[in-house]
Amino acid sequence: MQYYLDTANIEDIKRINNIYPIMGITTNPSIIAKEKRNFKEMIKEIQEVLGKDKYIHIQLVGETAEIMIEEAKKLIETFGENIYLKIPVTEQGIKAMKELSKEGQRITATGILSPQQIVMAAEAGAEYMAPYINRSDNIGESGVEIVKDAQKILDNVRISDEECKRRFKRVFEPKIFGASFKNVRQVHEVMLAGAKSVTVGTEVFDRLIYHPYTDWSMEKFNEDWQKVYGDKNLLDLL
Ligand code: G3P
Fold first, then answer.
1. pTM for this entry
2. Annotated catalytic, 152?
């Protein structure tokens, strides 16, 4: 499972990256704006914290495919290769994906609320497709059903590595990228439905491995250990 953190907050990125095996971070215009910082400095600082082998997904904001393509080129020129271009599944966005993927650019399709948007984005050369699970659940639809349906279709139309390389200049597996979560249950169900990657905000990320009974178990182990060995750890005893 690929985990991403859905934030541009530098303190959260430092803390979570220090503990958990994340692949990188994802942002959107609201997430970026929330930090109220100089855009370029902020992304550079995030890159320093994450290191060279991790990825940052940055959304294009231009209103036409032509402007999005220019933004994409400038982003790569400024921040280097480890950037995924987040592109919305609008008509102009799909057009931009189609052009950029031909040149081998890394693309994450975003703003997804239906299985057909996933299928179209994959065909246009996106590597990641990010359905908004909670936003879908919020209006009485089902984020997890979007993932299930789209994953079935993606499995049926999977192309070979050679074909992928010929069309998109690189080999990758198209992946459903669960996004917009408000609780751990949503994350779990999306993983069960076939998503290969998830991006999770800080609050839900912190709860992914939380269980009160685990904490209780550790407290009990410590208590029993300390009765016999005091504050010593294994290094003191070996
Ligand atoms: O990555 C997509 C995400 O940022 C949208 O999440 O929580 O604002 O619905 P949310």
1. 0.95
2. no
* Ligand 1 atom with minimal separation from the 134 CA: 9
The whole-angstrom separation of Cα 238 and Cα 236 is 6
Which residue shows structure tokens 């975003």? Answer: 110
CA atoms within 13 A on the CB side of 47: 17
Q: How many whole angstroms from 182 Cα to the centroid of ligand 1?
A: 9
Ligand 1 surroundings by CB, under 6 angstroms: 6, 26, 28, 31, 130, 132, 134-135, 179-180, 199, 201
Residue by residue, pLDDT tens for the chain (238 residues) are 999 999 999 999 999 999 999 999 999 999 999 999 999 999 999 999 999 899 999 999 999 999 999 999 999 999 998 999 999 999 999 999 999 999 999 999 999 999 999 999 999 999 999 999 999 999 999 999 999 999 999 999 999 999 999 999 999 999 999 999 999 999 999 999 999 999 999 999 999 999 999 999 999 999 999 999 999 999 999 9
